[in-house]
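Quick look at the format.
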Amino acid sequence: MPSRDASSYGGGDVGLLTPVSAGSPAEGATGDAAVLRAMLDAEAALTRAQAGIGAVPGRAAEAVTKAAGSVGFDARGLALRAGAGGNPVIPLVTDLRAAVAELSPGDEEFVHRGATSQDILDTALMLVAARTLDLIGVDLAATAATLAPLADRHRATVMAARTLTRHAVPTTFGLKAAGWRSLVLDAHDRVVRVRSTLPVQLGGAAGTLAAFEAYGMEGEALVSAFAAELGLCAPELPWHVLRTPVADLAGALAFCAGALGKVAADVLVLSRTEVGEVAEGTGGISSAMPHKRNPVRSVLLASAARQVPALASTLYASMAAEDERPPGAWHAEWSPLREALRLCGGAARGAAVLCGELSVFPARMRSNLAQGELGKLGEAAGGVGAAEAMVARALRRGALAAPPEDVRPPAHP
């Protein structure tokens, strides 16, 4: 006997199990409504590009664009109908053609002309990625901007360096914060770089552009026009089974999550009760122990850092795609890519708030240093070496990555 219909359990996901991203801009930018909007944007842009090279009437492009701009498309209905063909583009094309037919009878034939479902969905996911990476980039820049004065302020704040969990030699908190900032800037660089290379997908049924040429369209000109309409890049070749763009996204997102996870890992250690060298500005509450103030932002960043690499591994595994459209490898990418974008977006927003509100306790750092193994060594423990000079050098980096003056660490909803 089949299982019960999903409707018997209530509505769809609202973020109960994903507090790292719930309420963040990235959650909205990667939601089903955003994916649907990106698919409609891709369909409309394709028709406009075809009109731009003289392959379809201008009135058809106007009708498709107007129909695609409406809000009358049912995302849930499309999702339920997607099972019949294995992707949501097939039912969307049916609905879009019907909408165009109402506006401009006869012009529905120009919807999706020459394209395959993968052309539209791949392009839509690149649009979703581009829009989400723009948000991530702003929050990474804001995080780096808050870490710069933190590192500068504490360039001479001595604390114990810890290796393999034990006190090692003296260092400064400024050097630690400068290291965080360097990683965040590295993540920012990777996000900006991959954002600038995201391509449209356009190859037709098997990546040969034959269907477009059958309609009298010159393939290279069409691809360039399509990319220009959407603000994405024109690829050298159709990449139906050449998944470099997705793999590049996977790498950048895994690095981003890991970089923010490093910040979180240090804050979690330094904010332990027995260490007490830093604290989150606003601690989280405990349901069982109301006296506790938990480092919740760091906990959520740490959770994202553990999830995104696993999601990236699925995206990398999907590169081994057979034929000209693989059975399953392409389909396996959609959810992990969306979730990796969402997690990184939520983590970047959380990191901007965390670093902007972080409390530092230099007296506790000195006390821990004096009472540990290093205190027993006295002067034999040595100084902090070139820590201050390294902080100064590190802070000279990244002027171009700093956010505009009106960007401040945003308050998480």
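Next, a different chain entirely:
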Amino acid sequence: MVGFARFQTTRSKRRCDLVYIYNITVVHRSSIIDHGSWIMDHVTFWWVQAEAIAGTVAPQFTGITVLESEPKELVMEMEMQWDGNPNIVLDIKTRVGVALPIQVKNIGFTGVFRLIFKPLVDEIPCFGAVCYSLREKRNLDFTLKVIGGDISAVPGVSTALEDTIRDAIEDSITWPVRKIVPIIPGDYSYLEVKAVGVLEVKLIEAQELTNKDVIGKSDPFAQIFVRPLRAKTKTSKVIDNDINPIWNEHFEFEVEDELTQHLTVRIYDDEGIQAAELIGCAQIPISELVPGKIKDVWLKLVKDLHVQRDRKNRGQVHVELLYCPLSSESIFSSSFDPDFRLTSLEKALKQVSEDAGGRDHSSTSSSTTPPPSYTKKDIIFRGVLSVTIMSAENLPATDLMGKSDPFVVLTMRKSEQKCKTRVLNDTLNPIWNQTFDFVVEDGLHELLIMEVYDHDTFGKDKMGRCLLTLTRCILEGEFTESLDIQGTKSGKLNMHLKWTSQTIIKD
């Protein structure tokens, strides 16, 4: 009873402190509360250096959900709505040294916060620390005003401030990032967010994009991210005047929580000096990827990821994905281990290079293992790609008699090597069984393009195309594949690929 009474007294005192804190400025706050107090460290919001008053409207929690969790922890999600009237003053320093007081007011926020109580202990209040994070930001609106002036009179300030404030919020508390509030003294560094893997993304192409230009065609580019932060968003190059663009670009992203994070792809039409116009977006959960296995997928583009009412065809984007977890061996290995900083993909590629080096260079070197500091970025995967075009099925009829005269043109995009099969007359299911060899100087960045044509006396008509990266071929050595022919209503192209490696190290 004595212990319970002491706990209730302490709890009541902390509540009184909280109420008082909300009605004083940050400057006064720091002089009243000890800097070692958890209230001082964690009740201060993202406007730490602002002269802030939270206002008179309290946030409302509209729903609480208890989630399944690991032993010795409790996870809750709380839906919060806040139409607040705070008075926040930001002291903005310009390059010329002039202070510009900006008032932030009329905040409207709707979102979901995640609370993690961990570890669960026998000591009251039964948990050692609380982690809080913004699980989902549904809406965030606020008004900016220059004290004693009009913010619109200063070009670019309003937009820059809004972007900065939003980025600060998302970077500091958006899931999987979390703030840790110690309740019982102890070391809780293990609760901090850490990378658990690397997501390898190859942006290959897009098909049938919506044309946003009145004259000509769209100039598409892609923005790709796992965490929606400007600093962690990757942007592709712009492909001019093409609604079926080919990028063949490679990106890497850190993954902190493979169970809840997604890969998001947004396709825009570049408008020059004007703001880019969104063509469509797509998303895929990282949890759908099998670790260490390549996933080649077409993602349908939609207008809004959260509102699935749009049935308009906006095109689709073709990506190759590979999720590589950071193994326990890599995390706890000695720094003397040559594979200490390699992902599972890099280890597989390194093993390929070692095997190839042992076969091809045994007479010139006693060891072909790359130095420990080398990763796949330092290795050029050179070799010979053997492509056997076996057959095609259900090709569209292009002649008046309901037949076609198909042939296939093979192109290596980076090296511009070309080969083509023979023409087979009057068939929709041709069988070629022709093999072509390509000398590849950089396998990880090369792209094989296979275009199917109908032969005519005075030219040729394109039926469609298939694109294939060499990543899987490098990892597996050889395989047989059947690909849908893009750009046609029907049709498949059957092929066999074999990779003979001759790996070298970049100078």
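The first helix runs from residue 2 to 21.

See the schema section for token definitions.
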